[in-house]
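Quick question: what would this complex look like in 3D?
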Amino acid sequence: MVRPNFATLEDAPGKVKVLAFWCLGILAFWHFGFSILDFAWPRGPPSGALSTAPRSCYDATRKGGEPKIQNLQSKIHRHLPKLGQHFLHDQGYRARILEALPLHPGDLVFEIGPGRGAMTTLLAGRARKVIAVEIDRALAQRLQEDFPQGSHVEIILADVLRVDFAALCRGEGVAQGFIFGNLPYYITSPILHHLFAQRDSIRAMGLLMQREVAERLTAAPGTRDYGYLTIATQVCSQPQITLAVPPGAFSPAPKVQSALVTFRMKAKFDRWPRTTCDEFLDFVKRCFAQKRKNLLNNLSSVYSRRRITQALEEAGKPANLRAEQLSTEELAGVFEHLTRSREN
Ligand code: SAM
């Protein structure tokens, strides 16, 4: 056996040192490089602008769409937990979710996080067009390959929190679209707020989320789950838990139960213009700022204590009430009284 005639790397000749350096470099890249690239690239375009990723389509009349997705899945093995990637692999639940969506055949559908396309093909078969927004570059590219040019599925590589749905609707010549998403659970609340802020461009939605969050959206006053998110949701829409989905329907299985929530985008207070509605939501946020404090204390930085007590009295409520003890209508009554007395 040939033995090197040096004991440590320090004694080795220059060429050997360079070789050892390269070997170590390649090994280090193999270990860490790919995950660093994975981390750096999937975040979509850095400018925040909507990436006009190549347009592509899928012909819903084509036979065998579902097996094609299966092939696609077998090509992509990895998943990124930090992007909330739990893919819907159960065919039965995919069909049940589709059936539960209040979709119209003429709808423009925006899909949030199409992933490997588990629902994209099915949605395309029921709607006029699907625009799917995916943040993971590798997945978006695979979908791009799977939905070739000229059909009615378009893949956009972008962060959904930066997507301007009104602009997309205008581009398609429609006033409103339908939103579907098996949501990345780590940003469910920011997505909901982003969607509610753009509610004028949304006809209806079907969103798959963690069951606990679904219960908060539909909670009744006085319960533990009732809070700002409940009221924001119920002011902008009529939410309904439509389907329970167990962890086993996903791959990898999440640690939590899931539920499909459908939303009819109908404002609760028709009498208010959009600006008043937004002011009311700011007011509600303040009411719930510190859950353990009562309304008087939470609001006293903005309104005088006398006015708040008066407003509560007018609503027939004691001054020491906490926000969670009032229904949305009662909070709206207090808000209207306070804003009216500000005007006088
Ligand atoms: N729709 C697929 C399904 O049902 O199998 C995947 C759903 S998976 C729970 C969530 C998807 O959202 C992933 O594909 C993930 O990459 C994507 N995603 C995560 N954060 C996102 C973001 N900010 N904008 C757009 N897509 C995002």
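Answer marked as accepted. The first strand starts at residue 87 and ends at 88.
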